[in-house]
């Protein structure tokens, strides 16, 4: 089962490798991992998308908690939460494709953030499925380059991950 | 007060009341060694290889209640230390390792003797630090000691670049440590402890299984009291030997791959199993599916939540310090109105005694050739069962664990988790330094002892009168045993030709060496060795080459599927 784990970790050098090293050493999956400092610059927040049986997920959260630099760990996919991912996609946009690409971006509520005479960069945010659907909906031969941020996630309402 | 980084390091060690630092100098730690030279409180033990420094400091910690401290230089100093650090990590031994690093400006430049020590050691330490400013040294070392000894203990490494040890900074040693990310649970959950007690008292076939956690939290005394009061059977794992007196009638011997028949059968067929500071590892329970197939309720007390329900599902988890929880359990037992099911317990003991009557530890002694089991039995007799026994890894380790009856904790020092050959002699060094007047023996084999044989020189320099009992069978015995049993007797690279004359080798280092060939001479040689209170004596016992360790649960098999002796094959 897919799980989204959010954690707060001391913003110190090597923090990321402690977490990624744990996953590789114990053979856990990482589908995506994002990390950036929070409003408190001494803390970083990570969102890790992983998968595994309940036993494995239990071990993952315990092992993460055991890391000395980790302050808090929450499996946010255990209850209502919001996930978003950012994608920047550079596509060929010439002739009739140019108009078509603009239309598709509009349908998916994407924004064209850069344009040359032959290409667009489209910015798209949403959950994973939405971004996948966009890629599925356009002519893939027109894709020049894509970059995705990986998921960031946050619990809804009163579920707050803070110090 | 303004001091150099190096002086701060030494001051911190003094603050932590460190008696001994085990180490080896080199370029990146020259300033620290200079500061060490200019004081007398912290004494330094110069080993002959950094691996031995870590092992000796590790044993110092194992045999006392203190944190072991080692000091190594950058690059090869640090990489040589890695095996020692991983060994301590696997057995949760509190240690602080200080390593030198190339100067800050040279980091990342592929400088001479540069490795990414923090990166290399990350998976085998509890935590590590790279100190970039002399002003941070004191608080970092304070944290290192705090992390090493609290919660589930473990080694902590502090990497200090050479320029940082030369810089000056204001020195102030913090009194306490606050870490928002690190607050290990000490007290167990009251409700869970009550639940555990109820289960235990209602049990028809209770069994108590304890590991290294009992030793580490100094819980042998409360454990012993509690178990005696409950009248239940108990087993101690390889790491937990001495947690409960081995000569007591409630003790069933060690469980696991080379455990006793009665311990394994009782583990398997218990209806309530109380696990204390143990982790159900593969050498103890064998195949976890086979173990789980027999229904039983499991209570698990451990300081590390990640050890609970890792390999075996647990019914009553109790996270907390083993000693605290056992004491609480004893208090609740005193106040409890629950009646123990004594009739069922008596029936259970009859069953256990029947298993015991198989006498699975018996072996055929000989007048012609020395049996390794006999050597260990005599060692136990000659030392009055009161020595510090270290071992290396292999058959001799199992024989020492099986035949030396440990009645006290912290007397048995071995590499249980990582299984590191070469720990035996450095462990004996650490134990002897911690207990100068005690009898210390290293039970080893001719293969293991050669992995750190150079330490005979350290033993001479520091006059460490350890006794080395080399169970010499000219084979990598445990490898040979597995090849005999599971690889059609094809002894691939397990025979060692061209062995040295160990007695002469010991003499070359300035010690006493005695070769023992006949069973009749075993006891005399041991008595002679231990009567020489100030000398290291190397006893080279020529033992039966074909002897195997039994009982045995093959890898991947269930606990009840034991081979009791060669006749079972």
TrEMBL record, chain A:
It comes from the Bacteria. One of its GO terms (biological process) is L-valine biosynthetic process. It is an enzyme of class 2 (transferase). Gene3D superfamilies: 3.30.70.260, ACT-like. Chain A, domain 2. One of its GO terms (cellular component) is cytosol. Keywords: Amino-acid biosynthesis, Branched-chain amino acid biosynthesis, Transferase. CDD domains: ACT_AHAS. Its EC number is 2.2.1.6. It holds the Pfam family ACT_AHAS_ss. InterPro entries: Acetalactate_synth_ssu, Acetolactate_synth/TF_NikR_C, Acetolactate_synth_ssu_C, ACT-like_dom_sf, ACT_dom, AHAS_ACT, AHAS_small-like_ACT. One of its GO terms (molecular function) is acetolactate synthase activity. Pathway: Amino-acid biosynthesis; L-valine biosynthesis; L-valine from pyruvate: step 1/4; Amino-acid biosynthesis; L-isoleucine biosynthesis; L-isoleucine from 2-oxobutanoate: step 1/4. Residues 4-78 form the ACT domain. It catalyses: 2 pyruvate + H(+) = (2S)-2-acetolactate + CO2. Catalyzes the conversion of 2 pyruvate molecules into acetolactate in the first common step of the biosynthetic pathway of the branched-amino acids such as leucine, isoleucine, and valine. Belongs to the acetolactate synthase small subunit family. Dimer of large and small chains. This is Acetolactate synthase small subunit. The gene is ilvN.
UniProtKB/TrEMBL annotation, chain B:
Residues 392-540 form the Thiamine pyrophosphate enzyme TPP-binding domain. Coiled coil: none annotated. GO terms for molecular function: acetolactate synthase activity; flavin adenine dinucleotide binding; magnesium ion binding; thiamine pyrophosphate binding. GO terms for cellular component: acetolactate synthase complex. The keyword Metal-binding applies. Keywords: Amino-acid biosynthesis, Branched-chain amino acid biosynthesis, FAD, Flavoprotein, Magnesium, Metal-binding, Thiamine pyrophosphate, Transferase. SUPFAM superfamilies: DHS-like NAD/FAD-binding domain, Thiamin diphosphate-binding fold (THDP-binding). It is an enzyme of class 2 (transferase). Its cofactor is thiamine diphosphate; Mg(2+). GO terms for biological process: isoleucine biosynthetic process; L-valine biosynthetic process. Pathway: Amino-acid biosynthesis; L-valine biosynthesis; L-valine from pyruvate: step 1/4; Amino-acid biosynthesis; L-isoleucine biosynthesis; L-isoleucine from 2-oxobutanoate: step 1/4. NCBIfam families: acolac_lg, PRK06965.1. This is Acetolactate synthase.
